[in-house]
């Protein structure tokens, strides 16, 4: 049984968009999926139709070609993800995909446009800001918050009372100890361990984390 009987539009028909389409259908979140993509010329991808380009999104919505939308553009283009969201979120309903193989405490606040991959654990009173993606196996401990337009790679771990700013990209297996604040537009390389606040945007790596650019 579908969680809803709606059609989801995904902006971007690349690798990330295909993953989101797979979860949307195979995990029974949506009845149908369509892609909107400015790059590819194919009429369909893995059997799902590509209905047109991004400048046509509002027209497609008015024509009832889809009911909700999600942005399937990855971590290398967080500014583009934000731009699409800012342009559309007051005009078109954004969907959510929260995989059934994840644990989500009932107190967790997950805003629109978010995707939670399988095997994530979101503990009591945590919050996920709009248009944010949590990849496989992320752990978000109690009373932590993640800002809008963020991308967490697989197995990111946040201890309690952690605050992540807008537009952050946290690399695979990065770890943030408790009571840490990371400012917006920060990036963590794979395996980075954060033991003190990050107050300046940049790329951080190592254990403990240090800025390299």
Summarize this structure briefly.
The chain has 213 residues and is an alpha/beta fold.
Descriptive overview:
The chain is 14% helix and 28% strand. The protein has 213 residues and is an alpha/beta fold. It has an eight-stranded mixed beta sheet with strand order 6-9-12-15-18-21-23-24, with helices on one face. A six-stranded parallel beta sheet has the order 7-10-13-16-19-22, with no helix packed on it. The model has no long low-confidence stretch (mean pLDDT 96).
Share in β-strands: 25-35%
Q: Roughly how many Å apart are the termini? A: 48 Å
What oligomeric arrangement do these chains adopt? single chain
Tally the beta strands.
24
Query: What is the number of domains?
Result: 2
CATH topology of the largest domain: the name is UDP N-Acetylglucosamine Acyltransferase, domain 1
Considering DSSP H and I runs of 4 or more, what fraction of the residues is helical? Answer: 10-25%
Task: Report the top-level CATH class of the largest domain.
Answer: Mainly Beta
Q: Let me know the CATH homologous superfamily of the largest domain.
A: Hexapeptide repeat proteins
The strands making up the biggest β-sheet line up spatially as 6-9-12-15-18-21-23-24
Low-confidence stretches: none
Shape: globular
State Rg. 17 Å
By secondary-structure content and strand pairing, the structural class works out as: alpha/beta
Largest sheet: 8 strands, mixed
Secondary-structure element pattern, one letter each: EHEEEHEHEEEEEEEEEEEEEEEEEEE
CATH architecture of the largest domain: 3 Solenoid
Count of individual helical segments:
3
């Amino acid at each position: 049984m579908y969680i809803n009987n709606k059609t989801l539009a995904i902006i971007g028909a690349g690798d990330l968009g295909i993953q989101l389409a797979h979860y949307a259908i195979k995990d029974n979140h949506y009845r149908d999926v369509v892609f909107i993509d400015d790059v590819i010329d194919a009429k369909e991808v893995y059997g799902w139709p590509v209905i047109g380009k991004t400048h046509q999104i509002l027209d497609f919505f008015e024509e009832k070609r889809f009911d909700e939308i999600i942005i399937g553009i990855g971590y290398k283009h967080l500014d583009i993800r934000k731009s699409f969201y800012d342009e559309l979120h007051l005009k078109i309903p954004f969907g959510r995909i929260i995989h059934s193989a994840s644990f989500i405490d009932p107190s967790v606040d997950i805003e629109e446009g978010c995707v939670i991959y399988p095997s994530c654990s979101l503990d009591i009173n945590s919050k996920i800001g709009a248009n944010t993606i949590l990849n496989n196996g992320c752990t978000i401990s109690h009373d932590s918050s993640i800002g809008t337009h963020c991308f967490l790679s697989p197995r990111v771990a946040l201890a309690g009372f952690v605050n992540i700013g807008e537009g952050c990209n946290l690399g695979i297996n990065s770890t943030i100890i408790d009571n840490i604040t990371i400012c917006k537009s920060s990036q963590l390389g794979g395996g980075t361990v954060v033991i003190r606040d990050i107050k300046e945007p940049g790329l951080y790596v190592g254990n403990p984390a240090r800025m390299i650019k």
